[in-house]
Each structure stands twice: as structure tokens, then as C-alpha cells.
Amino acid sequence: GAGDDTRAWGPPFAGTESVYFLSVNRNKKSIAVNMKDSKGAKLIRELAAVSDVFVENYIPGKLAEMGLGYEDIKKIAPHIVYCSITGYGQTGPMVQRGGYDSIAAAVSGLMHITGHEDGEPVRPGVAMTDLATGLYTYGAIMAGLLQRYKTGKGLHIDCNLLSSQVA
């Protein structure tokens, strides 16, 4: 596919690129790894072994199926601060649903208070749920690194869109 749909959000655009996408992805670097391939999964494990933090945003259980869940990574990197970002957390009736800013904003009630009083719900002009989740995730990871510094042990952090928006 085309990847992150915010690549097309606009206006405004800088040439043909979304200004929003550019603003939230400035100076980021990435690699693409096929984790379903044994070589790709091996590379992820090698990177995790020498990393401080592992962040993933898969539906709960998907990485464990590939041998890359928290329990798997913890065996090779007991120091790792492993952070899962999901739509609705690691347990509960919505656990297998994918997360998306607009859906979490609707489920949380945020869209109920936007728009006109007698009108349809309106998506906020800013991806507030994504931004709030990123902020809470940052704080949780920093706290996790502090805990690891004090205890010498890594941990699994669970952040999710719905809880972030409700908070």
C-alpha cells in the first residue's frame, strides 16, 4: 500500500507532500524489515539485543506468533524496555481490533463534543489521540528507563489509543 495515510493529508502541502506528515516525521529514519521471514526476525532480535527500547504497534499476540513478543525478546535482552502501542490494550473485548486515531476519538466520546450541538460528530482537525498517545508513550518509556536503571531489569509497557484519549 501507500503506507501512512497522513502522507496525503492536506492542504497545506509542500509541493506534493503533506505538511502535517512532514511536521510529525521530521528527521526520522527508518528501515524496512520483513519480520515474517526468518532472516528479518533474526535481524530484529539482533537489534533488540543491543537496544534500550523496543516499540511496536501490532495487534496483541501478532509479534509473539513471529517469535518477537515481549517474552521472546526478554530472553535475549532482559534489559529491554518493550513498549506495545495498541488501539485498546492487551486484554479486553476490543483487543483484536486495530487502532486508529479517528476510531479511538469516537469510542472515547471526543467526537461527541466536537462540531455543532445538533449536528453529526466531527473528527478534530488534529490527530489528538495519536499525539496524546505519543506523549504518554514517551513518558512511560522514560519512566521505564528510570526503573531499569534502578533495578537492572527491563519491562513491558502497554500504551493504547483509547486509554490515552480518555485520560
TrEMBL record:
InterPro entries: CoA-transferase_III_domain, CoA-Trfase_fam_III, CoA-Trfase_III_dom_1_sf. It comes from the Eukaryota. This is Succinate--hydroxymethylglutarate CoA-transferase. The lineage of its organism: Eukaryota, Metazoa, Chordata, Craniata, Vertebrata. Belongs to the CoA-transferase III family. Keywords: Transferase. GO terms for cellular component: mitochondrion. GO terms for molecular function: succinate-hydroxymethylglutarate CoA-transferase activity.
